[in-house]
Write a structure and sequence with these properties.
With 483 residues, the protein is of the alpha/beta class. The protein folds into three domains: 11-305, NagB/RpiA/CoA transferase-like (Rossmann fold, 3-Layer(aba) Sandwich), CATH 3.40.50; 320-406, no CATH class; 422-482, no CATH class. 49% of the residues lie in helices and 11% in strands. It has 22 helices and twelve strands. It has helices at residues 17-24, 28-50, 55-71, 73-86, 97-110, 122-126, 129-135, 145-152, 169-179, 189-206, 232-238, 259-270, 303-308, 323-327, 331-334, 345-355, 373-377, 384-399, 408-420, 423-437, 455-458, 471-482, and strands at residues 90-94, 115-118, 139-142, 209-212, 216-218, 223-228, 242-248, 252-253, 278-282, 293-299, 446-447, 463-464. Strands 1-10-7-4-2-3 form a six-stranded parallel beta sheet, sandwiched between helices. Strands 8-5-6-9 form a four-stranded mixed beta sheet. A two-stranded antiparallel sheet has the order 11-12. Helix 3 crosses helix 12 (259-270). It starts with 16 loop residues before the first helix and ends with a helix. It binds iron/sulfur cluster.
């Protein structure tokens, strides 16, 4: 039986990264929007990280906290459950997306609310919660500005932190004009923000159930922390009578004090801000203040599988800041939709194949030039290139399983090894290569098409013609002429 896909976009129906990227590269407006937005965020990030004298120490502390937490994840999750329950919260455990959706839908129905207001949450995107709620007759309102744009535009997120980053002002204005019936809407940021505010305000005041994700779960106190910039999160967390939080089990940190590290790293890496304008931390329920019922759904959905893989485990260190996406030269050209997953960019290229058990996301570990820009900016120092190579190895294993000695890649490697092992064979191969490429090269010295399996190379890049003379030949000739 085929396991249920673990990420919301049906991976059996999305094309491979390479196919999707080729199509999206034709959209020059999208490329312009993505390059502009990521460029602005990168410049801000650079400024606010360089001004901190202990930035590298902060990164190292965060890494150590995460490594320690993952080593004792069972203990910290149980601590969180105990302390959250003691404070009046109810903790639910979900093995996979289907279980999490079932619990969430039942809780919303129990709250006797036909509507929910939501804070931006990649975890709820991961489990396709909106579709499940709507199938159960519940109306969902996204309240984060970018998520609202996507919901009204029937679009998908393309960035972890700035989900509508692929849209420009004119496009957003078009969506609001159509969906909010505002024919005279201007396109200044203030006009768009005002339209969203007016649209959402009465929902904040009317809707009785809120749904959120979590940036951090604090084991020591059972508290949940959400950081955001717009204030919509604060409204969703305080106004409804019932609050349901859905969080991956990797979001737990041991103590309140650890926030000191993460609340410096996250905003600086994510949006280039020194501090998030809204940092909400709440613990259970309190009479006369905030929601009267509070539920936390702790989601596994493949995470314990990642934890079990020693070489890929550090994927779970991720705090979803999106800095790797902004720095990635591949993401900056294709945008997020090419990844066919709610998690795009370098983190998506390592997280999605693991959440989808590799079967449906084999092309993603190749969506990288391995330049290392993601590793350099990652506040948790996640060695994404190394995890990518590890996953590529798994893809090759999967694709060549059962081929044994007939595995074409293994045959080609053996042949190469034999050529590189002997000078005469290497020189003969060079001569042969020069002869073979002659009819394929253009007048400008570039080869743009190769036959058969070699065509995989020229499908995405041109090949320079070999020089008429190698360095070694030139050196030998020079020696002769000197003598
Ligand atoms: S992998 Fe690192 S840079 Fe990328 S989103 Fe996660 S924490 Fe941020």
């Amino acid at each position: 039986m085929t396991p249920e896909p673990l990420v919301s976009i049906d991976p059996t129906r999305v094309p491979s990264f390479q196919t999707a990227a080729k199509l999206l590269l034709n959209d020059s407006q999208l490329r312009k929007n993505v390059r502009h937005a990521t460029g602005v965020i990168q410049a801000r990030r650079k400024l606010v990280t360089e001004e901190l004298p202990d930035w590298q120490e902060l990164r190292e502390s965060a890494r150590q906290i995460k490594t320690h937490t993952l080593q004792h994840l069972d203990r910290y999750l149980e601590d969180f459950e105990r302390n959250c329950t003691r404070a009046g919260g109810v903790v639910h455990w979900a093995r996979d997306a289907a279980e999490a959706r079932k619990i969430a839908v039942e809780l919303v129905q129990q709250s006797a609310s036909g509507e929910v207001i939501k804070i931006k949450s990649m975890t709820t995107e991961e489990i396709a919660l909106n579709a499940a709620l709507e199938a159960a007759g519940v109306r969902v309102y996204e309240t984060d500005l970018a998520e609202l744009i996507l919901q009204l535009g029937r679009d998908l997120p393309s960035h972890i932190v700035v989900p509508a980053l692929h849209k420009n002002r004119q496009q957003i204005r078009g969506i609001f004009e159509r969906e909010m019936s505002l024919p005279n809407l201007g396109e200044r940021p203030a006009d768009l923000a005002e339209a969203a505010r007016t649209f959402l305000r009465e929902k904040f005041l009317r809707v009785k159930t809120g749904v959120s994700g979590a940036n951090f779960l604090i084991a020591e106190t059972g508290a949940v922390c959400v950081v955001e910039s717009e204030g919509n999160g604060r409204m969703c967390l305080t106004l409804p009578g019932t609050l349901i939080t859905i969080a991956g089990i990797d979001k737990v940190i041991p103590s309140f004090r650890d926030l000191e590290v993460f609340l410096q790293l996250l905003p600086r890496s994510a949006t280039g801000e020194r501090m998030n304008p809204y940092n909400s931390i709440w613990t259970g329920v309190h009479a006369g203040d905030g929601p009267r019922a509070f539920h936390v759904i702790l989601l596994d959905n493949g995470r314990t599988g990642i934890l079990a893989d020693e070489k890929a485990r550090e994927t779970l260190h991720c705090i979803r800041c999106g800095a790797c996406q902004n720095a990635c030269p591949v993401y900056r050209q294709t945008g997020g939709h090419a990844y066919g997953s709610v998690y795009a960019g370098p983190i998506g290229a390592i997280l999605t194949p693991q959440l989808q058990q590799m079967e449906h996301a084999r092309s993603l570990p190749y969506a990288s030039s391995l330049c290392g820009a993601c590793y350099e900016v990652c506040p948790l120092k996640i060695n994404i290139p190394e995890v990518l190579i590890h996953l590529r190895h798994q893809v090759v294993e999967l694709e060549t399983r059962g081929l044994g000695a007939l595995n074409p890649e293994a045959v080609a490697m053996k042949l190469m090894a034999s050529v590189f092992a002997s000078e005469s064979r290497f020189r003969a191969a060079q001569r042969l290569g020069r002869m073979a490429e002659a009819p394929l090269a253009g007048r400008d010295g570039w080869i743009r098409w190769l036959p058969g399996v070699l065509g995989g190379w020229t499908a995405v890049r041109d090949l320079r013609r070999m020089p008429k003379q190698t360095f070694r030949e030139w050196w030998e000739q020079r020696g002769e002429s000197d003598a």
